[in-house]
Amino acid sequence: MEVLDSATAGAKVIRGSVLRAGSYAGGVALSIGTAALMIRHLGAGDYGKYVIVMSLIAIVSGFTDIGMANVAAREIAASGRAERNRLLANLLGIRIAIACAGILVATGFAVVAGYDSTMVFGTVLAGIGMFFTLIQHTYAIPMGVALRWGWISGIELFRQALMLVAAALLVVAGAGLLPFLAVTIPVGVLVLAVAIPSVRAVTPLLPALERSQWASILRLTGLYAAAAAVGTIYIFAAVIANSLVGSDQEAGYLAAAFRIYVVLAAIPLLLVSTAFPVLARAAHVDRARLEYALRRVFEIAVIVGVWMALATVLGASFAIAVVAGDGFGPSVGVLQIQALALVPSFLATAAGFALISLRLNVGLLVANAVALTLTVVLTLVLVPVIDAKGAAVGMLVGDTALAGLYGIWLARARLLVFDLRVLLRVAAATIVAALLALAPIPGGPLVVTATVVYFVVLFLLRGIPTEITDALTRRAADA
Predict the structure, then answer these.
(1) Does residue 321 have a pLDDT over 70?
(2) Which of 475, 37, 51 is nearest to 253 (CA)?
(3) Is 326 left (phi over 0), alpha (psi -120 to 50) or beta?
(4) Enclosing domain of residue 320
(5) How far apart are CA 7 and CA 197, in angstroms?
(6) Does residue 445 form part of some domain?
């Protein structure tokens, strides 16, 4: 992968991040439209059930990866074509096998947890839809390593558009909960069909079942597989734990806020994963380049994470009104607590990819296990006391602990790359922008105004990394 060693790799990563962020913004708009239709049509109770089932399937989806996609990207970045194809074919075989087992386990959990028959059958259907999606995601791994972010962004945008169209058709048809869970099947099939012509030249389409390669892949993942598995549970643990001790109504309030939060929480993964091939390559051949790249990644994580937390706190009422409508007032406080978790979430994502690049898998496992434990325990204890806000507090504490523990492991590796001056500039911009909350400005305009003020102040304080402006202006000049 010569592109990863080139002098233009950093600029490609920055422009790729902007491209993915732009396409993701379009996807968010489509996703919000989908959620708004579903919440208003299904109501708090059924939409809460929908999010519970999809959280179960998201956990299964994460287990089909168990860190192997990131490990594969790391190995592909340092290997030749023949090795890459063999690795990808066997990776696809492993993920298919785990997906089949995972769907059975998720369905069994739904039965044991006492979910109603619609949720149990819906778990099976949503799992089948996930099956097609994981195949497409496996095909996309070499596209990401080659920094072909336009293709990846376009496919994900297409998926969100299909979901919106499908949701609209189901609402018009007056469908119940089950069809909304089943619609992931035709959407997954269509997205896979569109993706195959573009990837057939760069990745094998059929799975391989070589025992030696399966053992080799599992050895490569090792502790990281366990860490990724725990991390996958942790992300959705609050929703599942809330379903065990809270009412259907509270599950609906949490689901409305969580739907917005999970869209926002995916942004750090989207941005940092864009840089991961470069980080993995630098960790393999150039420690100085790794340190430099990580410093810039952390700066961007702080800047964007704080801005998103600020914007979400200020715009929580507006966001809930748009997505859920009347009757979801309790979701506002839940979302504001979750918004605070966006800052440690950004930092944890950046630190997590650094640990993956350095193969510090023990740190990943320990930190994710602690975060999972804190999230589940606090949710089970607090939900009966403060309702859905208890789950939000559990998520906030879990994210904060995760970021802190990741930071400790990076410090042990002598890679603590924070710049105090950046933190001070971000703090100053945040304070100035937050003061706008005292002004009589409605929700939507308040978020836009605070965003403009935040970035203008940050720019004036020279808090935006010069690499960002250089990369974007250079591309504009080239064009």
Answers:
(1) yes
(2) 51
(3) beta
(4) 2-418
(5) 31
(6) no
